[in-house]
Design brief:
Number of helices: 4
Distance between the termini: 43 Å
CATH superfamily of the largest domain: K homology (KH) domain
Number of domains: 2
Strand order of the largest sheet: 1-2-3
Shape: elongated
Oligomer: single chain
Structural class: alpha+beta
Helix content: 40-55%
CATH architecture of the largest domain: 2-Layer Sandwich
Number of strands: 6
Largest sheet: 3 strands, mixed
Strand content: 15-25%
CATH topology of the largest domain: GMP Synthetase, Chain A, domain 3
Order of helices and strands: HEEHEHEHEE
């Protein structure tokens, strides 16, 4: 079942890549039990990122709705282009750790700018092991943000 869903997501991405007229290809770059990361590569891959990853987010949403929207299971789908998501994850990791260290040393909360759900999830996961701070989300989409606070 999951393998079938992953194959359908890859087929969707490859079909999209072919119809754009851009020099891009799509392939599975990370396969996990609960999800799949599809990477777009090629000289035009950067054009698929959009501002803050918005084009990638929109493509993910379309893929999820067209494939999983038919009630055939749940699968975490992530699209990346030209390594954007990996670079962004590294930046979020560095920022989250730096802010967590500041919160732990000063005792003052830190409030991050609004982030999309995928990026909020990354920050929460990065800091989940820490015993000196806690994280939680506040606000309404699309202005939902993370607060890093000292652990009580």
């Amino acid at each position: 079942m999951m393998e079938d869903l992953k194959a359908q997501v890859l087929e969707f991405a490859q079909g999209f890549a072919e119809t754009t007229g851009l020099d891009v290809t799509a392939e599975v770059t990370r396969d996990e039990p609960e999800g799949v990361l599809i990477g777009f590569q090629g000289t035009d891959a950067k054009q698929l990122i959009g501002r803050g990853g918005q084009v990638l987010d929109a493509l993910q949403l379309i893929a999820i709705n067209s494939i999983m929207g038919q009630g055939r299971g749940r699968l975490r789908v992530t699209f990346d282009a030209d390594g954007y998501r990996l670079r962004r994850e590294k930046m979020l990791t560095d920022m989250a750790n730096e802010l967590a260290d500041q919160v732990a040393s000063t005792g003052q909360e830190a409030v991050l700018d609004p982030l999309p759900p995928l990026e909020r999830r990354i920050v929460h996961q990065i800091l989940t092991e820490r015993t000196d701070i806690q994280t939680y989300s506040e606000g309404e989409e699309p202005n939902r943000y993370i607060v890093i606070a000292p652990r009580q």
